[in-house]
Amino acid sequence: MTQLVSTRLVTAYAAPAAAAPLVATQIERRAVGAHDVLIEIKYSGICHSDIHTVRGEWGEQSFPLAPGHEIVGVVTEIGAEVTRHQIGDTVGVGCMVNSCGECDYCLAGDQQYCRQGMVGTYGAVDRDGSTTQGGYSTHVVVTEDFVLSIPEGINLQNAAPLLCAGITTYSPLKRWGAGAGRKVAIVGLGGLGHMAVKIAAAMGAEVTVLSQTLSKQEDGLRLGATHYYATSNPETFKELAGSFDLILNTVSAPLEISSYLGLLRVDGAMVNVGAPAEPLPVNAMALIGGRRSFAGSMIGGIAETQEMLDFCAAHSLSADIELISAEQINEAYERVLSSDVRYRFVIDTATMA
After folding, report:
1. C-alpha torsion 206→230→168→345, nearest 10
2. CATH code for the domain of 48
3. How confident is the model at residue 37 (pLDDT cuts 50, 70, 90)?
């Protein structure tokens, strides 16, 4: 371990160029500073965002690039002034590793909306000028303020996707009032959607899944949904018109948004967490006619992410995963693109040795 830190080189799987397959390599990690935590990564989830990024679909990137922002592991070294974590702690790192810490949003606990730009876990420029590298690696160094505690009661490998899929769905469900007496629809039953169903049900809401087909109906009901409808059936939109207090859209494919807005009650809201590349046109009358809202949400702040982890532990929630070796990453990418995963791939980083 000492030699690892002094050389600042760790094993990783990274894309050497845009759209190139990921390969085993070494990446540089900074030495542990006064407020830093060195984490030996145990598991790292695969998010669709990883694929978009390394394939150059979300803008230019610096390569080689190791993605991964669903990270869990064990603290193996701490800086001299670290107070939040100790060696041996089980911890996690999500979608961001730094922010300015001084703007009104950061001070309010919304670091994801930092006015100077939050620092993403990979492919971003950190405050020291270095390019961040993600969790498809054996170790990572992160400032203590962005390291989360993984509570007891959550299997570590199943906890990894909570750092993205969990908080991405928990935050809007909480903000828009999912709970007892509320009817919530989840659009899509993938990596995000399956967590949204679990969390909304645990909050006490009556949950309906809106999926293109009924192929995952059994899973949806098992995960906590009360109802399951196929959106490919035009009768669905007639039958459910004016039904929901909240619709959470988890898919990244373009949808006929105005049709979904028609499923909302007066004062209902549809919130997007999926991020399609194409614009989503909205008929203004679909909003005006029912005093409805169409909104978006991006992950959550550090305090809220910790709250989500504690909520999941208290309700025995975690992600449904398929554990893979590092050598299966490229195959897993293709399977994600063909929707052949239930519901999140997680890399066992011990296979990188």
Report:
1. 120
2. 3.90.180.10
3. very high
In whole numbers, what is the pLDDT of the chain averaged over residues?
A: 95
Q: Give the alpha-carbon dihedral of 43, 175, 336, 215, to 10 degrees.
A: 120
Residue pair 36/79 in contact by the 8 Å Cβ criterion? yes
Instruction: Report residue 222 as tokens.
Output: 């098992």
Among residues 199, 196, 162, which one has the least CA distance to residue 71? 162
Residue where one domain finishes, among candidates 296, 312, 339: 296
Partners of residue 228 on adjacent β-strands = 209
Q: Is residue 17 located within the same domain as residue 147?
A: yes
H helix intervals, 9-145: 48-54, 104-107
Indicate the pTM of the whole model: 0.95
Helix boundaries (H) for the chain: 2-7, 48-54, 104-107, 156-159, 165-175, 191-202, 217-223, 234-239, 257-261, 284-288, 302-314, 329-337
DSSP 85: -
Write out the two tokens for 156: 């570590």
User: Using 50, 70 and 90 to split pLDDT, how confident is the model at 169?
Assistant: very high
The pLDDT value recorded for residue 2 is 37
Per-residue pLDDT of 59-70, as tens digits, reads 888 899 999 999
The closest alpha carbon to 168, from 251, 262, 79, belongs to 251
- In this structure, the answer to whether residues 131 and 266 fall within a common structural domain is no
C-alpha 129/C-alpha 24 separation (Å) is: 25
Q: E strands of the chain, at which residues?
A: 9-14, 23-28, 36-45, 71-78, 90-93, 96-98, 119-120, 139-143, 148-149, 183-187, 206-211, 227-230, 244-249, 264-272, 293-296, 321-324, 344-348
